[in-house]
User: What shape does this take?
Amino acid sequence: MADHLDDKELLFQFKSETNKEAAFTSIINKYQEKLYWHIRRLVVEHEDANDVLQNMFIKVWKNLDKFREDSQLYTWLYRIATNESLIFIEKQKKRHTISISDQENNLTNKIIADKDFDANKIEWKLQIAIQKLPEKQRVVFTLRYYDEMPYEKMSRVLETSEGALKASYHHAVKKIEDFILNH
Amino acid sequence: MHKNEQIQSELIELNSILARIPLINVYKVPESYFDNNSIVMIEKTKNKIQLEGDSKKNTYNVPNGYFDSLPNVILNKVTTQANIMPMRTRKHYFNFAVAASMAGMIGLGIFFIVNNREQKSDNLASIVKEANTILKSGNFEKELENLSDDDIVNYLKLNGSDVNAALVASITDENKLPNETDYLYDDHALDNFLKETNIKKINSIRN
Assistant: This one.
């Protein structure tokens, strides 16, 4: 099946048993990279991001029939990816019984452990600064800064008002700036 | 990577140094990770769904036609039991009280029977032996009838038991006990019954 079909058509095809797999393959091809990078920036390591991405697509497969088309597929997928990433981080916290500050360090350590890590490069400092943010601000910052998501769409993904998201993003930018200047 | 104009102007507006930092993706993915990802993902999804389905499969079997006949089997049991089961059931705690009192009565009965025969003997072993002989020979009821009410009352008083409860238990005709509906209609059904029984019978015993 061609990947050029729009979401509405893909959803229609998914509902027919004969085209189900082909439609799902097209959905994965269309969104996997964007969703992968969104997840990766939250969970840091590739293996973790891969696990989360696979789990989220399994959930998508199971629930796509029930998807209400009054919201966009893109918004819905981002919401699942965000939730699955946060659930994954939460599970890791519980598994290792670590506190929130330890969790920040845990993610920071994963960044430092990256074979390409260079403490002198500002782009790596930026990654560490992002992991120091509170969970919600981290999600808002990555969706805005990297995924370039308009507030209006982000509002539907995170079910938060645009005003609150703008405030959250501005706070996050300020905190990141402080971190970069002081480290 | 190029920054979106809107994002960049927002950062400039905020006067943030992020506006001067190039947008660089520091993370890497294994080579050709995205190329076959959809195929891998479909396979994994299928496997996972298959595994979940397998784990929920029932490994136990039931005899052929079990569920077809089950409603009739249950209905038969229910209707048969409905025919033979008495509707009247007594409160459990009252049953326990009566049972406990009866057990006390049997105990004290044996004690008095043995005690009457061997007035002066303090030998516990011989008392127990005598009690066993009575129980084995089945003469308990007969021997118990020989005890006076005063003996029983005195025994209960000496041993700290509830004399009234024991007496009520010993003189109660089970058929005259309040039934379940009596308790439903009147919270004081049991109290009234005990009060009435105590007054009448104990007075008659004492007189």
About this structure: Chain B has a mean pLDDT of 70. Chain B touches chain A at residues 3-4, 6-7, 11, 14, 16-18, 21-30, 34, 37-39, 41-42, 44-45, 48-49 (CB under 8 Å). Residues 92-206 of chain B form one domain. The first helix of chain B runs from residue 5 to 13.
